[in-house]
């Protein structure tokens, strides 16, 4: 617990002074004299400050209501005048909501909460005693904040804090306009344009790739055939981009079930890093390593792109490939697992 002693006009400080006889190069000056605020000595000033704090919290509530008026009353519109009105209401509403809470808390602390100077000694860690000390400190903070004695401030603060996060919830919800359920959205993120028979093509030209075009040591940036004709091709590309490389088949360490996922050492892996989704764009031919430039996650191509360095927690998903009757590389199916970080799948 803190010592609430203060210095006096004739004595600069009474806390944490040096011991008698102790030789310090720099003497502890102690705490400065405590100066009482007007709200400490005048009950009417304290009451006035309390009303000011409540008004600031009420302004926050009004700001949140203003946001909802702009968001729901104006709604989706293409009118320039209405858009300007809506943006004004959203901006002012958000500003007042956040500013009201922030300024209110600062004003509350500066005018009504105790401003005693406190010096505390550092104690050795003792679990049970620490718990009791922490409990006592929390109780002291609640008592000194006056929140139990000032219901006007407490109630307006609760109202402001309860309403302030709601605009953010509605804004985030409206980022997706498809009206799909959470399960449908996850399912849409899980699958890509790759499917059985879809040709592998160069990025961005869309030229199909023959197996004979891929030499040992070479690397291709690949997209699925027909990607550029898709309505949401950018979103599809963000999930479907692939790196294509060729190694000596003897260098590949293939796990059970993946024996036919490559064609004569030609392998295809997702280009999306499993850490935070950056594009894995660097290929070291001599070491057969793929490197993500964002956080230096490194994947070993000879071990089915297992992570050998960096923060990525999972190997890059492999795209099963083969060749069609004309010798072009085609996918056998979609990826067998989500590409990218896949937070919703892997936890």
From TrEMBL:
Query: SUPFAM superfamilies recorded for this chain?
Result: ISP domain
Cited CDD domains? Rieske
Q: Which residues cross the membrane?
A: 53-74, 89-109
Keywords of this entry: 2Fe-2S, Cell membrane, Disulfide bond, Electron transport, Iron, Iron-sulfur, Membrane, Metal-binding, Oxidoreductase, Respiratory chain, Transmembrane, Transmembrane helix, Transport
Q: By its UniProt entry, which Gene3D superfamilies does this protein fall under?
A: Rieske [2Fe-2S] iron-sulphur domain
> Which residue ranges are recorded for the region named Disordered?
1-44
The entry's localization annotation reads:
Cell membrane
Cellular component per GO, a single term: plasma membrane
Membrane-topology descriptor: Multi-pass membrane protein
The cross-references to InterPro entries, in alphabetical order and at most eight, read: QcrA_N, Rieske_2Fe-2S, Rieske_2Fe-2S_sf, Rieske_Fe-S_prot
Q: Name one GO molecular function term.
A: monooxygenase activity
Asked whether the keyword tRNA processing is assigned, the reply is: no
Per UniProt, residues of the Rieske domain are 266-330
Q: What superkingdom does the record give?
A: Bacteria
Indicate the family of this protein.
Belongs to the Rieske iron-sulfur protein family.
What is this protein's function per UniProt? Iron-sulfur subunit of the cytochrome bc1 complex, an essential component of the respiratory electron transport chain required for ATP synthesis. The bc1 complex catalyzes the oxidation of menaquinol and the reduction of cytochrome c in the respiratory chain. The bc1 complex operates through a Q-cycle mechanism that couples electron transfer to generation of the proton gradient that drives ATP synthesis.
Q: What is this protein called?
A: Cytochrome bc1 complex Rieske iron-sulfur subunit
């Amino acid at each position: 617990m803190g010592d609430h002693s203060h210095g006096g006009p004739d004595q600069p400080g009474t806390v944490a002074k040096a011991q008698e006889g102790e030789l310090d190069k720099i003497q502890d000056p102690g705490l400065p004299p405590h100066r009482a605020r007007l709200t400490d000595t005048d009950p009417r000033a304290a009451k006035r400050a309390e009303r000011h704090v409540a008004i600031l919290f009420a302004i926050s509530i009004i700001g949140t209501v203003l946001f909802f008026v702009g968001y729901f009353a104006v709604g989706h519109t293409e009118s320039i005048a209405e858009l300007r009105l809506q943006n004004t209401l959203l901006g002012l509403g958000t500003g007042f909501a956040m500013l009201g809470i922030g300024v209110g808390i600062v004003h509350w602390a500066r005018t009504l909460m105790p401003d005693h100077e406190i010096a505390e000694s550092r104690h050795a860690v003792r679990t049970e005693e620490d718990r009791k000390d922490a409990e006592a400190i929390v109780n002291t903070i609640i008592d000194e904040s006056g929140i139990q004695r000032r219901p006007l401030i407490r109630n307006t603060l609760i109202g402001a804090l309860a309403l302030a996060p709601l605009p953010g919830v509605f804004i985030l919800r409206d980022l997706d306009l498809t009206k799909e359920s959470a399960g449908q959205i996850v399912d849409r993120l899980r699958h890509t344009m790759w499917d059985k028979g879809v040709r592998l093509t160069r990025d961005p030209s869309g030229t199909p790739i023959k197996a004979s075009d891929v030499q040992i040591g070479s690397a291709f940036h690949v997209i699925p055939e027909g990607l550029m004709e898709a309505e949401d091709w950018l979103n599809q590309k963000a999930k479907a981009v692939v790196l294509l490389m060729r190694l000596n088949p003897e260098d590949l360490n293939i796990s059970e079930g993946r024996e036919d996922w490559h064609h004569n050492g030609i392998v295809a892996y997702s280009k999306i890093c499993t850490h935070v989704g950056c594009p894995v764009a660097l290929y070291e031919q001599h070491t057969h390593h793929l490197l993500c430039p964002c956080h230096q996650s490194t994947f070993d191509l000879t071990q089915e792109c297992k992570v050998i360095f960096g923060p990525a927690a999972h190997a890059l998903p492999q795209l099963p490939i083969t060749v069609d009757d004309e010798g072009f590389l085609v996918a056998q199916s979609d990826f067998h697992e989500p590409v990218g970080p896949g937070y919703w799948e892997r936890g």
